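Minutes, project check-in
Item: structure for the 151-residue chain
Input as provided by the requester:
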Amino acid sequence: MRGITFEIPNAYGHYLSEILDGVKGLTWKIGDGESYVIENETLGVPLFPSACIVEEDVLLKEVSKKDYYLIFADLKGFPEKSDVREITTYKEFVESECQFVLLVIDSSYVTIYSKDQSTIKHLFSKAVEAGYKKIEYITDENDERTTLIAF
């Protein structure tokens, strides 16, 4: 198993907080994306500054405090004190220190890659419990992605 895919509701919420609950010990590289904090019932400031590196506690705080709307999101988790760099393909992911990739495309389509099989199984179970749709494992046989970037 390489990871999982599923669909989240196309709505405001705290989906990253829900998905990342239990994923620990990583420094996060936030790639280009488009996600906004909800202010006065409309899109406000960007959820993340473009292309930055944040510590786990900072990321979890940001994705937990206010509702936001995800359009595109590109998060890559690396062990603390490792070589944090851009990962654009599955081969680069495998050959790097990167442990976790989370992509959100078109507000609903979530793709997660993890080097830890127990994390994949845990996230699959959480996705089922949350009522997300079209939950599937990503395997060597069914992986159709050519890049690991949101856009």
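Outcome recorded: The chain has four helices and nine strands.
No further action items on this chain.
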